[in-house]
UniProtKB/TrEMBL annotation, chain B:
<protein>
    <recommendedName>
        <fullName>CDAN1-interacting nuclease 1</fullName>
    </recommendedName>
</protein>
<keyword id="KW-0963">Cytoplasm</keyword>
<dbReference type="GO" id="GO:0005634">
    <property type="term" value="C:nucleus"/>
</dbReference>
<dbReference type="GO" id="GO:0005737">
    <property type="term" value="C:cytoplasm"/>
</dbReference>
<dbReference type="Pfam" id="PF14811">
    <property type="entry name" value="TPD"/>
</dbReference>
<keyword id="KW-0539">Nucleus</keyword>
<dbReference type="InterPro" id="IPR029404">
    <property type="entry name" value="CDIN1"/>
</dbReference>
C-alpha cells in the first residue's frame, strides 16, 4: 500500500490513475503504460489502499489531535505510528506509520508483508474470518498486548497494527504471537481482536465537542462482529448490565495501559484519558499555535495526498463521508502539536518526499492539508446548514490559507436559506379516544373493555411518572415502573386486547417521537393539532420559549451508536420491562404493517416542468409530507429492528466456528420479520431509495452480529454498498438523484457502516461492480429520488451527527470554554403537516390504469384532491347509511320490541331471543345500503371535487376527476358496506334492545313525563339543594336537641314554602332525587306543624305557632302538593305511627289541625277517603298510651262521620290523576 | 375561595374532633367570617369524612357495637324522648347517622330471624317510619336530621348540588356558544370515561401572567372544595383518565381549592373556582 502512495509521491503515477485503479478493478485506457505497470504489480492490494490511506492519515495526525481515538473513526486497519515521538523520529523505516504508541523499537521493514498476509487471510470466505475471534478481555488487552496482532490480521487493510504492539516492548509479553510485522504468517493463531476501544477524550481542546462515549469511532479494522458486547449493547442495554460493565472494564484496562506507557515514555503523546483526573495543563494554559501558509513544510507532498484523499472521498471509496469531513475539520482547527517539533532535525528533501517523514510536521501542514481537501468538497460544504457555513466562512485559518474558498463559502452562506431550526415538542399529548375504534363494540367482552380502560390509564400514569423522574439521578426505569408494567401486561389476556394496546402504544410512539423533538401533535392519519391552527404567532412564541429552556444535547460524536433519545427511551424501556412475548409479537406485526403502508404511500412525484408559482407552494407541502413520512418510517423501523433482533442480542461474544455455522444454518431458516430485501429492491427500482433506505438503515442498525452473515441480509448490504458507491455527488445531471437526497443517503449509509455489528470489511471487501448503479433499466423516469424532497432540515434531523461539524467549528471559535459537551443544541425539525390521502388500493383493471394515466399528466394536487374526496365521501357515505337506513331500522326494531313487550307482558321474553327475531326481520333490509351508498357518492363527490380544484381546470379534466372520485368513493363505501352492513345493523339493534329493556326497568319516576319551566322562567329560583338544606335545618330544630335561643320565625317558614314553590315551578336545576326528598321533607314539615312541634322564635308566650298561621302554612303545603310537585308525594306518611305519635307529646293535644289536613287532602283529591280510612285503621294497631288511643279513635270517628259529599267528585279526580298519594316515594 | 395551603390548614385545624352538628357549623362560620359558607361546609364535611374513615374501624368491632347498643337500650329505658342516640354518637365521636345505622342493624339482628339486608337498612334510614320500633324510629330520625355530614338527606343535598352545578355549567357553555357533548351523549357513544362535558371544538384559556394559554378539551364540574385528598383521588380516577383520552382540560371546583394543587397546568389539568372568563375560541378566519 505504502508503495502505491510512494509512487504517487514520486510522481510515478498520477492521482487520477490511482483513483481509477482503486475504484475499478481494471485500468482505464487513459492510463499510460508506465502507470499501469506500476499499479498492476500492486493489484492484489487494490482494495487495501483506501483503508491504508485513511489510517495513515489518522496516524499522521495523531500528534495534532492528541486525544487520539475520538478522532473520527479510522477506517480498517489499525493506527499507524506517531512519527514524531519524543524518543526520536522514526528512523527511515516505513514501519513508522504503523505505530500507535510512541516508542517504536521494532519496525517493519517491509510494509508489504503484512499486507500480503492480510490479503491471504481475506481470501477466505467471509464468515470464516469470524473464526478465532477473541473474547472481550483478550481483545481489550490486545490494545497493547499480543491480541493486537490478531486484530491486524483481521483488519481489511492496514498494515500498521502489528508494529504498534511491538513498539511497546514492556507490554510485549508474547513474541511468538506477535513477531515483528511482516514475519508473522497468517496462521490460525491470527485471532481476531476486539475492536479497538477509543479512550475517552480528555484533551483540553476537544473536551467540549468530544463525545464522552464515542464508541463508534473505533478503527474499522476491529471486527465488530468478533467483539462481544459492550459496545453493541450499551446503547440499548439498559437491561443488560454486563455490556456496560465490560465497557467500563475495557476503559479501565485502557487507562491502565496508557498510564503504564506514560510512565515508560517521558513525553506523553496522549494525555491520560481518565475523566476524573485532569492534567494540570488542561485548562487555559494552552495557547493556540497560529497557522501560517508560509511555513508549510512540503506543499507538494501534502497537495498530492490531499488530492488522492479528496478523490477517494468524492468517489465514495470511504465508508463515511461526514466522518472524513469531521477529520478534516479537526485538522483545520487543530490547536497545537503535542510535542515540540523544533528539536527535530531538519529533514532532507529526499526524506520529505517519501513517507518516511511525518506527513504533518506542524500545524501549518495540517491546516494546509485540510484546506486543500475542503477546496475539493466545496459543493458538500455549501449544502451544510447556514450556521456551519457561517462558522466556516468566518474561520480565519481558512481565510488565510485560501481566500478564494473563503470567498465562495461566504457567498454560499449569504445565499443559504438552510436554517436548521430548533423546535421543542409540546408536552406529551395522549392518543385521543375514538369511539369508532375504542368503544365497547370493539371488544370481545365487557371485561376486556374495562381491562383495557384501566390499562390505558396505567400506561399514561407510567408515562407521566417517567417524564417526571427519568432525568433524576439514581432513578431506574425497571425499579420504578417495571413491576407495574408487567402487572398491566399480565392483564392483557385476550389477543384482541393486545392489538388494542399495541395500537395505543404505536400511536403514542409516533405522536411523541415521530421526529426528535418533532412538533408532535400531527400524527399520521390524525387531525392536525389544534394548537397549530390557532395561529402561528402564539405557537412560535411558545416554542421559542421552550427552545430557550432546552438543555444542550450532544448527539454523541460524528458517528454515534444507535440510541433512543428523549421520549424514545421510554418506549424502549417499556418494551424491555414488559418483556412480554405476546406484546412484542403484536408490536412487530403492527409496526411492519405501518411501515409497509407508509413505504408504499404514493408520494407525489416531481414534475420538472412546473413553471408557475403554484408549484412552489405545492413543493413546500410535498417536502413536509415527505419529511413526516420519512421520519415516521425511521422511527417505526428503528423500533421494529429493536424488537425483532432483541432475542438475538446479548453481551456474550458472537459465536465462532461450528457453533456459528449451526447458528447460521438455524437463522437462515427464520423468515425475516418484514421482507426488507424486497422492499429495498422495489424501492431502488422505483427510484424511491431516498424514502426506503433511511428507514432500512434504522432497522439494520439494531441487527445482531449474525445478521450480516446471513445470505438474506448480505444481499441487502451488497445492494446498499452498491448504492453508496453510485451516489457520486459530483455527478449531477438530469434524471439523477438530487444532491441533498444523495447527501442524506450517504450520511445514513456512512453511519450504518460504522455500527459495530456491521463488519467493516464488508465495505472494503465488496467487489465494486460499482460504477453506474443501474438496478433496473425499466426504472421510471422520475422517481422520488429525482425530486428535491430532502432539505437541510430533514438531513440534520435524520443525521444529527452532521451537526458535530458545526460543534467542532464552534468550539474552535469559543476556545476551550464550556465543558458540557458543547453549546450546540440538538437539531430538531420544524413542524410537519399530516399526510394527504392514501392511495386507493383498489386500482385494478383497465379503468384503474386509465385513471392512473389520467393523473400522470395532471398536477399532483389534482390526484391528491380526488383521492382525498373519494376517501372522505366514501367514509361519509358509510356514516350516512348509518344515520339514515340503519337508524330507521333501529327505530323499527324499537317499535317491534315495544309490541313484543306489550304482547308478552312485563317480562318480554329472553333478550337474546328477542334480538334474533328482530335481526332476522331487519337484516335483509341492509341490502338497500349498497344502492343508497352509490346514490350518495354520486350526489356528493362531484361538488366536493369542484370546490377543491382550481377554477381554471378544464371542463374535461374536471368531469373526469369527478367521475374518478365518484368511482373510488363508491368502491370504497360499497366494499365496506357489503362486508359489514349486516353486522352493523345487528350491533345497533342489539344496543337498542338493551337500551329499551334497561329503560323498562327502574326509575319510572325519572322516565315519567315532566313539565319544564315556563318559557318566561329565568331560572332565578332558589336551588333545590339550598331548600333541602334549609328544611333540614328546620326539621333538626324541631326534632331537637336545641339551644334555648334557637327557633324559627313564622315568616321564615312562610318564606321557605314560598321558595319551595318557586323551585318546584322552575325545573331547571331540579333532579328527581332532589324532588323526592323535598316531597318527603315537606310531609315531615306538615306533620310537625300539625303536632305543633316547631319552635317559634320570639317571646315565650309566642313560643307556639298560632293556629291561623299553622293553617296558612298547611294550605301552602297542600297547594304545593297539589300543583307543583311532579313526582309522587308520600302523603301517607302524615298518618304513619311516628308522625301521628308526635301529637302524643303535646299537652293539651290539639287534633283540629290534623282533622283539617285530612279534610283538605280529601277535598283536593290528594288522598282518597278509603286510603285515609285504611291508614287510620292501621294506626289503631300500634301501641299507644291509653288516653291517646281513645282520642285517636275519636278522630277517626269524626273523620269517618263526615258526609261523603265530595266522594263522587273525588272519584273523578282520582280518575284524572291516579292516586298520587298512594305511590310510595322511591326513596 | 382559592385558599393557600396555610389558610386551608388553619381551617382544618379548627375542625379536629368537632361533631357534625349545625351548632358546630355556626361556630365555624363565626370563626371564619370571610370565607364563604359553602366552602366552609364543604371543607368541614371533607375533614369530618377523613376523620371518620380513620376511626371507622374502631366503632365496628363487635365489642364496640355491643357496648353502644347496651348504652342505647339503657338510655331509652330511662327516657325514650331524650336524644340518647345522638348524644351517644357525639360522645364517642362518631357520625350520628352512622351510629343510627349501627344500632338499627344491631336491633334488627335481634328482632328478625334473618339478618337485615343492606337495602332494607337503607330504606329504613331514608324513611324511619318503616322501623318497627317507634322509639328507635324517632332516635334514628333525630340522628339523621342532626347530622350535617352523613345520612340520606345529606347525600341528597350533595347530589343536588352536583347536579345544579352541572346544569349551571351547561348553561354557561350554551351562553358562550360552545358546543359540547355531555356525559349521557358520551356514554351513548360508548366512551369508557366520561367527563361532564367534552368541547367539540377546544378553546384556549388565557392566564393573566402567562404568555401562553391553556388548551381545554373537556370540563369537569366539582361542587366541592378541592382538598389534597379528594383532588388526588379525582386525579387518579377521573382527571388523568380524561387527559389520557381527550387531552388537556379544565376542572372547576365551585367551592374553591387549595392553590398549591393547581400544579398540573402545564401537563394539561387546569383548576378554576369558577367558569373562566378569558376564553379564546377557534377563529375560523385563522384556521
Amino acid at each position: 500500500m505504502a508503495a502505491v502512495l510512494e509512487s504517487l509521491l514520486r510522481e510515478e503515477v498520477s492521482v487520477a490513475a490511482v483513483v481509477r485503479w482503486i475504484a475499478r478493478s481494471t485500468q482505464g485506457s487513459e492510463d499510460n503504460a508506465g502507470e499501469a505497470a506500476a499499479l498492476s504489480s500492486l493489484r492484489a492490494l487494490r482494495k487495501e489502499f483506501v483503508p491504508f490511506l485513511l489510517n495513515f492519515l489518522r496516524e499522521q495526525s495523531s500528534r495534532v489531535l492528541p486525544q487520539g481515538p475520538p478522532t473520527p473513526a479510522k477506517t480498517p486497519g489499525a493506527s499507524a505510528a506517531l512519527p514524531g515521538r519524543p524518543g526520536g523520529p522514526p528512523r527511515g523505516s516505513r514501519g513508522a506509520r504503523s505505530q500507535l504508541f510512541p516508542p517504536t523499537e521494532a519496525q517493519s521493514t517491509a510494509a508489504e508483508a503484512p499486507l500480503a498476509r492480510r490479503g491471504g487471510r481475506r481470501r477466505g470466505p467471509g464468515p470464516a474470518r469470524e473464526r478465532g475471534g477473541r473474547g472481550l478481555e483478550e481483545g481489550v488487552s490486545g490494545e497493547s498486548l499480543p491480541g493486537a496482532g490478531g486484530r491486524r490480521l483481521r483488519g481489511s487493510g492496514s498494515p500498521s497494527r502489528p508494529s504498534l504492539t511491538l513498539s511497546d516492548p514492556p507490554n510485549l509479553s508474547n513474541l511468538e504471537e506477535f513477531p515483528p510485522v511482516g514475519s508473522v504468517p497468517p496462521g490460525p493463531t491470527g485471532t481476531k481482536p476486539s475492536r479497538r476501544i477509543n479512550p475517552t477524550p480528555v484533551s483540553e481542546e476537544r473536551s467540549l465537542s468530544k463525545p464522552k462515549t464515542c464508541f463508534t469511532s473505533p478503527p474499522i479494522s476491529c471486527v465488530p462482529s468478533s467483539q462481544p458486547s459492550a459496545l453493541d449493547t450499551s446503547p440499548w442495554g439498559l437491561g443488560l448490565p454486563p455490556g456496560c460493565r465490560s465497557l467500563q472494564e475495557e476503559r479501565e484496562m485502557l487507562r491502565k495501559e496508557r498510564s503504564k506507557q506514560l510512565q515508560q515514555s517521558p513525553t506523553p503523546t496522549c494525555p491520560t484519558p481518565e475523566l476524573g483526573s485532569p492534567l494540570p495543563s488542561r485548562t487555559g494554559s494552552l495557547t493556540d499555535e497560529p497557522a501560517d501558509p508560509a511555513r508549510v513544510s512540503s506543499r507538494q507532498r501534502l497537495e498530492l495526498v490531499a488530492l488522492v484523499y479528496s478523490s477517494c472521498i468524492a468517489e465514495n471509496l470511504v465508508p463515511n463521508l461526514f466522518l472524513e469531513l469531521f477529520f478534516v475539520f479537526q485538522l483545520l482547527t487543530a490547536r497545537r502539536m503535542v510535542t515540540a517539533k523544533d528539536s527535530d532535525p531538519e529533514l532532507s528533501p529526499a526524506v520529505l518526499d517519501s513517507l518516511e517523514s511525518p506527513l504533518f510536521q506542524s500545524i501549518h501542514d495540517c491546516v494546509f492539508f485540510a484546506v486543500q481537501v475542503l477546496e475539493c468538497h466545496f459543493q458538500v460544504l455549501s449544502n451544510l446548514d447556514k450556521g456551519t457555513l457561517k462558522l466556516l466562512a468566518e474561520n480565519e485559518r481558512l481565510l488565510c490559507f485560501s481566500p478564494a474558498l473563503q470567498g465562495r463559502l461566504r457567498a454560499a452562506y449569504e445565499g443559504s436559506v438552510a436554517k436548521v431550526s430548533l423546535v421543542m415538542p409540546p408536552s406529551t399529548q395522549a392518543v385521543s379516544f375514538q369511539p369508532e375504534t375504542d368503544n365497547r363494540a370493539n371488544f370481545s367482552s365487557d371485561r376486556a373493555f374495562h381491562t383495557f380502560k384501566k390499562q390505558r390509564d396505567v400506561f399514561y400514569e407510567v408515562l407521566r411518572e417517567w417524564e417526571d423522574h427519568h432525568e433524576e439521578p439514581g432513578w431506574d426505569f425497571e425499579k420504578g415502573l417495571g413491576s407495574r408494567i408487567r402487572a398491566m401486561m399480565g392483564q392483557l389476556s385476550a389477543a384482541c386486547s393486545h392489538s388494542h394496546f399495541v395500537r395505543l402504544f404505536q400511536k403514542q410512539l409516533l405522536q411523541m417521537c415521530q421526529s426528535p423533538g418533532g412538533a408532535g401533535g400531527t400524527v399520521l392519519g390524525e387531525a392536525p393539532d389544534v394548537l397549530s391552527m390557532l395561529g402561528a404567532d402564539k405557537l412560535g412564541r411558545l416554542w421559542r420559549l421552550q427552545e430557550r429552556l432546552m438543555a444542550p444535547q450532544s448527539s454523541g460524536g460524528p458517528c454515534p451508536p444507535p440510541t433512543f433519545p428523549g421520549c424514545q427511551g421510554f418506549f424502549r424501556d417499556f418494551i424491555l420491562s414488559a418483556s412480554s412475548f405476546q406484546f412484542n409479537q403484536h408490536l412487530m406485526d403492527s409496526l411492519s404493517l405501518k411501515i409497509q403502508e407508509l413505504n408504499g404511500l404514493a408520494l407525489p412525484q416531481h414534475e420538472p416542468n412546473d413553471e408557475d408559482g403554484e408549484s412552489d407552494v405545492d413543493w413546500q407541502g410535498e417536502r413536509k409530507q415527505f419529511a413526516v413520512v420519512l421520519l415516521s418510517l425511521r422511527l417505526l423501523a428503528k423500533f421494529l429492528g429493536f424488537v425483532a433482533f432483541l432475542p438475538y442480542r446479548g453481551p456474550e461474544p458472537p459465536p465462532t466456528g461450528e457453533l456459528q455455522d449451526s447458528i447460521l444454518a438455524l437463522r437462515s431458516q427464520v423468515p425475516p420479520v418484514l421482507d426488507v430485501r424486497t422492499l429495498l429492491q422495489r424501492g431502488l427500482q422505483a427510484r424511491r431509495a431516498v424514502l426506503t433506505v433511511p428507514w432500512l438503515v434504522e432497522f439494520l442498525s439494531f441487527a445482531d452480529h449474525v445478521v450480516p452473515l446471513l445470505e438474506y441480509y448480505r444481499d441487502i448490504f451488497t445492494l446498499l454498498l452498491r448504492l453508496h458507491r453510485s451516489l457520486v455527488l459530483s455527478q449531477e445531471s438530469e434524471g439523477k438523484m438530487c444532491f441533498l437526497n444523495k447527501l442524506l443517503l450517504l450520511a445514513v449509509l456512512g453511519w450504518l457502516f460504522q455500527i459495530p455489528t456491521v463488519p467493516e470489511d464488508l465495505f472494503f471487501l465488496e467487489e465494486g461492480p460499482s460504477y453506474a448503479f443501474e438496478v433496473d433499466t425499466v426504472a421510471p423516469e422520475h422517481g422520488l429520488d429525482n425530486a428535491p424532497v430532502v432539505d437541510q432540515q430533514l438531513l440534520y434531523t435524520c443525521c444529527p451527527y452532521i451537526g458535530e461539524l458545526r460543534k467542532l467549528l464552534a468550539s474552535w471559535v469559543s476556545g476551550s470554554s464550556g465543558r458540557s459537551g458543547g453549546f450546540m443544541r440538538k437539531i430538531t425539525p420544524t413542524t410537519t403537516t399530516s399526510l394527504g390521502a392514501q392511495p386507493s388500493q383498489t386500482s385494478q383493471g383497465l379503468q384503474a390504469q386509465l385513471a392512473q394515466a389520467f393523473f400522470h399528466n395532471q398536477p399532483p394536487s389534482l390526484r391528491r384532491t380526488v383521492e382525498f374526496v373519494a376517501e372522505r365521501i366514501g367514509s361519509n357515505c358509510v356514516k350516512h347509511i348509518k344515520a339514515t337506513l340503519v337508524a330507521d331500522l333501529v327505530r323499527q326494531a324499537e317499535s317491534l320490541l315495544q309490541e313484543q313487550l306489550v304482547t308478552q307482558g312485563e317480562e318480554g321474553g329472553d333478550p337474546a331471543q328477542l334480538l334474533e327475531i328482530l335481526c332476522s326481520q331487519l337484516c335483509p333490509h341492509g341490502a338497500q345500503a349498497l344502492a343508497l351508498g352509490r346514490e350518495f357518492c354520486q350526489r356528493k363527490s362531484p361538488g366536493a371535487v369542484r370546490a377543491l380544484l382550481p377554477e381554471e381546470t378544464p371542463a374535461a379534466v374536471l368531469s373526469s376527476a369527478e367521475n374518478i372520485a365518484v368511482g373510488l368513493a363508491t368502491e370504497k363505501a360499497c366494499a365496506w358496506l357489503s362486508a359489514n352492513i349486516t353486522a352493523l345493523i345487528r350491533r345497533e339493534v342489539k344496543a337498542a334492545v338493551s337500551r329499551t329493556l334497561r329503560a323498562q326497568g327502574p326509575e319510572p319516576a325519572a322516565r315519567g313525563e315532566r313539565r319544564g319551566c315556563s318559557r318566561a322562567c329565568e331560572h332565578h329560583a332558589p336551588l333545590p339543594s339550598h331548600l333541602i338544606s334549609e328544611i333540614k335545618d328546620v326539621l333538626s330544630l324541631a326534632v331537637g336537641p336545641r339551644d334555648p335561643d334557637e327557633g324559627v320565625s313564622p315568616e321564615h317558614l312562610e318564606q321557605l314554602l314560598g321558595q319551595l314553590g318557586q323551585t318546584l315551578r322552575c325545573r331547571q336545576f331540579l333532579c328527581p332525587p332532589a324532588e323526592q326528598h323535598l316531597a318527603k321533607c315537606s310531609v315531615e314539615l306538615a306533620s310537625l306543624l300539625v303536632a305543633d312541634q316547631i319552635p317559634i322564635l320570639g317571646p315565650p308566650a309566642q313560643y307556639r305557632l298560632e293556629r291561623g298561621q299553622a293553617r296558612r302554612l298547611l294550605h301552602m303545603l297542600l297547594s304545593l302538593w297539589k300543583e307543583d310537585f311532579q313526582g309522587p308525594v308520600p302523603l301517607q306518611l302524615l298518618l304513619s305511627p311516628r308522625n301521628v305519635g308526635l301529637l302524643a307529646d303535646t299537652r293539651p293535644r290539639e287534633w283540629d289541625l290534623l282533622l283539617f289536613l285530612l279534610r283538605e287532602l280529601v277535598e283536593k283529591g290528594l288522598m282518597g277517603r278509603m286510603e285515609i280510612e285504611a291508614c287510620l285503621g292501621s294506626l289503631h294497631q300500634a301501641q299507644w298510651p291509653g288516653d291517646f288511643a281513645e282520642e285517636l279513635a275519636t278522630l277517626s270517628n269524626l273523620f269517618l262521620a263526615e258526609p261523603h259529599l265530595p266522594e263522587p267528585q273525588l272519584r273523578a279526580c282520582e280518575l284524572v290523576q291516579p292516586n298520587r298519594g298512594t305511590v310510595l316515594a322511591q326513596s | 375561595m382559592i385558599l393557600t395551603k396555610a389558610q386551608y390548614d388553619e381551617i382544618a385545624q379548627c375542625l379536629v374532633s368537632v361533631p357534625p352538628t349545625r351548632q358546630s357549623l355556626r361556630k365555624l362560620k363565626q370563626r371564619f367570617p370571610s370565607q364563604s359558607q359553602a366552602t366552609l361546609l364543604s371543607i368541614f364535611s371533607q375533614e369530618y369524612q377523613k376523620h371518620i374513615k380513620r376511626t371507622h374501624a374502631k366503632h365496628h368491632t363487635s365489642e364496640a357495637i355491643e357496648s353502644y347498643y347496651q348504652r342505647y337500650l339503657n338510655g331509652v329505658v330511662k327516657n325514650g324522648a331524650a336524644p340518647v342516640l345522638l348524644d351517644l354518637a357525639n360522645e364517642v365521636d362518631y357520625a350520628p347517622s352512622l351510629m343510627a345505622r349501627l344500632i338499627l342493624e344491631r336491633f334488627l339482628q335481634e328482632h328478625e330471624e334473618t339478618p337485615p339486608s343492606k337495602s332494607i337498612i337503607n330504606s329504613m334510614l331514608r324513611d324511619p317510619s318503616q322501623i318497627p320500633d317507634g322509639v328507635l324510629a324517632n332516635q334514628v330520625y333525630q340522628c339523621i336530621v342532626n347530622d350535617c355530614c352523613y345520612g340520606p338527606l345529606v347525600d341528597c343535598i350533595k347530589h343536588a348540588i352536583g347536579h345544579e352545578h352541572e346544569v349551571l355549567l351547561r348553561d354557561l357553555l350554551l351562553e358562550k356558544n360552545l358546543s359540547f357533548l355531555d356525559e349521557d351523549q358520551l356514554r351513548a357513544k360508548g366512551y369508557d370515561k366520561t367527563p361532564d362535558f367534552i368541547l367539540q371544538v377546544p378553546v384556549v384559556m388565557l392566564c393573566p401572567l402567562a404568555v401562553e394559554g391553556h388548551i381545554i378539551h373537556w370540563i369537569e364540574s366539582k361542587a366541592s372544595f378541592g382538598d389534597e385528598c379528594s383532588h388526588h383521588a379525582y386525579l387518579h380516577d377521573q382527571f388523568w383518565s380524561y387527559w389520557n383520552r381527550f387531552g388537556p382540560g379544565l376542572v372547576i371546583y365551585w367551592y374553591g381549592f387549595i392553590q398549591e394543587l393547581d400544579c398540573n397546568r402545564e401537563r394539561g389539568i387546569l383548576l378554576k373556582a369558577c367558569f373562566p372568563t378569558n376564553i379564546v375560541t377557534l377563529c375560523h378566519s385563522i384556521a
